[in-house]
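EI: anyone free to look at a 44-residue chain?
SC: sure, send it
EI:
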Amino acid sequence: MSEHVPGSMDTRAQEKTFNSFLRMVTWGAVIAVLVLIVMALADA
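SC: here you go
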């Protein structure tokens, strides 16, 4: 078994997954805020 060399791991897959997660959370937050605004306006 070879020794691990710090900094040699390919992290492109993790970065892609993390960016997708951030995009999903951002869109989820925007949609939630919009739903709350619509609900507040519908009650007015």
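EI: Residues 12-43 form the longest helix (32 residues).
SC: 👍
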